[in-house]
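REQUEST
  id: r-88c1
  op: predict_structure
  target: 2-methylcitrate dehydratase
  payload:
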Amino acid sequence: MEREGEEVLSEICSYVLRKREFSLNAIDNAYLCFWDSLACLFLGVKSAECRLRMEPLFDEPSDSFSCLIPGSTLRANPLDAAFAISCGLRWFDYNDAWLAQEWGHPSDNLGAILACAQYREKKEGDKVSGLNILQWMVKAHEIQGVLSLKNSLNRFGLDHVVFVRVASAAVASAILGGGEKEVMSALTNSFVDGAPLRIYRHAPVTGWRKSWAAADAVRRAVWLAFIAKRGEMAYPNVLSQPQWGFSDAFLRGTQVVLDRPLSDYVMENVLFKAYPAEYHAQSAIEAALALREEVLPKLEKIQRIEIHTQLPAIRIIHKQGPLHNPADRDHCLEYIVALALLFGKVTHELYENDVAADPRVDYLRKKMVTMEDKTYTAAYYDPEKMAVANAVQVFFDDGSSTEKKEVLFPLGHPRRRAEFQKILPLKIEHALNGLFSEERKKELLDLYSKKEKFFTQSSLELCSLFVPDLL
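RESPONSE
  id: r-88c1
  status: 200
  body:
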């Protein structure tokens, strides 16, 4: 039964505060998600553009409550630490995803969790274990993901990071020791903040903000959690108040609803990425890679390239014309398919200007015809399937063509979880290069393989392990 208005707020508040046992599958996936997010963070900190935004704007005297930022030698207050962690892990669009009426990346919330966990340990002396971190991740994923099931912000031109802020505010407040009053304050104030526009995610002005917007939401959420702890008041009517409430002011009267009880559904079904690209393109990459050997020798004879996809991909990443920066290119379905056909891989380095200047890239893009397959769209929205399908077929001047290569479920999909588990250690190891010595790399990869040991270590112990020794 759907809940709306004040019922949504009370359900989230109750969920985040009560202790519960999560399924083994959810905890296992949270463990994969933690390490996957960490790998993304380690890759992000190597980017000069990312570091420019991660570093605090103003120098601060070090104090006993500063937080470590994994993958770097930076320390910062909990607000700036939360921003930096989430900014780094989100930077290359390589972290997990959740796709429904609203789209998003639930691991964006990890910045709030790690920053607040460290603060609580230092300030209160309360240990927050690795297992506790995973449990908080399950809750943050669940809040953001279930809100995304039936509440489409994008339909109103608004960005999904609203739900990141909501999830992080609720969870951060609870981690900091808040009760019902404090969690309700942080939660309702996160809705009072309203919603940013999606303009920075779409042509013709796709820009860097799409890589730090979630971090901005996380930082704000942590601030709201701290002021809630000071006694800041709540606004329990924030969703349903006529004219002035969130639903009327931002959603034209559409009510915010929870479509299912909050449990561990989202973490059990979360989507991982095998490639640093927007998730709706993941299966298109696999399809293009399967055709590459046949297509590459006949590039000059290509008549057209058909891409059959789902409606969300059409809305988000179907782009024609100039692409202005890497943030623009990793959200262009046609550019991503061109990379797979030309280079046999898709890496974040291939979004840079020198690769984009290769005339073959735009030559292939101009040959592409992208169209919706309504069966793919239906399978996308089917909760029993959650398919993210694409098909690619290449036609040549002589009338011949490749097969129509279809991939319904990309490598990071729950139906292919075992395959993803095989490649995650490679993703982690690659991310460690350049930051950690061989000895430290071995130590961290050994920790990854020893889940029980991870469960018992504190957030401070874990974060200290992730400070690079080569910087």
